[in-house]
């Protein structure tokens, strides 16, 4: 068998075009176009791999690296939630459930969302296997190959890659960085939302910048999307991690960021995605939900069936405890996160040439460092030379270059050790 390179196939990735050799396989004098290497379809190959992972992988095996690169707290899920899962297991909750989740959890979520954002019936609630699954399901519901999708960046890369998996074309509208931190040019976003746009995906509070979309901007975007029949997928997984002034209060006075659910009717072209991962410290449980028009639910059932079939049943039972008894937890968590944010902000802002601003939400500081013009290379040397694990800004799109992301959802001692390491690194550099 002879293998012959016959040309190069151009693939466009978010990082720019790159070429992949195409090979002919000559077998028994006949030429076929079958590659000798088993490979995924071209669109999947062209997806960007995670630069956060690239940095984390560079740190694996190195002694004593302090990781602040992933978006999760260092606190274990509280015992009232773990106990509920164990009780459910002891009770035999080990079977498939309805595609859209068990009814008591859907009902609990309907009550919870109604308390935060206005009347929401159970038939608008679908339980999913965490936020990332809800986002993919929502994308699969709405987007066809070739569709135009608009997103506000810098952004958690999963949101950019999901529509691309389905062959959609993603246009980005960058937030601008200025004296008051990251902000949206509303006119620029509205101009990008052309009548041929299928869907807007917007994440607020935003990972990585902590930017929060204002109620007025949400209203303007919703009005515009209504006029043109554009779907809005709102990723609101950080809605409870909110420290801004423009706040809504739920029944017991807890904070929540402005949400599209406050403005939109439940049967409009709006899908709001949420998760148990962040506010209830349940990243490893893989439980989330979406609020969507009830008319979508039959089709959503099919997609859930063919993706995961359902979320794990004992995990769903634990979700009921979380959502019904979790307000004290959320209040303590956000108070502590707020204090950690301010502590890190204060310490970073005293370092020479570090530019950092207070974001209104989420659990990250996204700041510029001397030498971060190549943030991936900088983060790799921070891991190697300082034992400090940060996420490179370029992982969140070209607008993020020059910045690094620090997840501050951890205890004070760890934050201080990280700060000492950064100070030493900057002095040495
Ligand atoms: C913006 C954003 N959306 C959604 C998610 C999904 O989280 P999960 O799949 O754990 O619910 C994350 C996780 O980091 C995130 O940062």
TrEMBL record:
Q: Which GO terms describe its biological process?
A: amino acid metabolic process
Q: Which UniProt keywords apply?
A: Aminotransferase, Pyridoxal phosphate, Transferase
Q: EC number(s) on record?
A: 2.6.1.-
> Which InterPro entries does UniProt cross-reference here?
Aminotransferase_I/II_large, AspAT/PAT-like, NHTrfase_class1_PyrdxlP-BS, PyrdxlP-dep_Trfase, PyrdxlP-dep_Trfase_major
- Output the Gene Ontology terms for molecular function: pyridoxal phosphate binding; transaminase activity
The keyword Glycosyltransferase appears for this protein: no
| Enzyme class per UniProt | transferase
Q: Which domain of life is it from?
A: Bacteria
Cofactor(s) needed by this chain:
pyridoxal 5'-phosphate
* Domain Aminotransferase class I/classII large: start-end pairs: 77-422
Q: Write out the similarity annotation.
A: Belongs to the class-I pyridoxal-phosphate-dependent aminotransferase family.
**Record's protein name:** Aminotransferase
Q: Which organism is it from?
A: Paraburkholderia humisilvae
Q: Which gene encodes it?
A: dapX_1
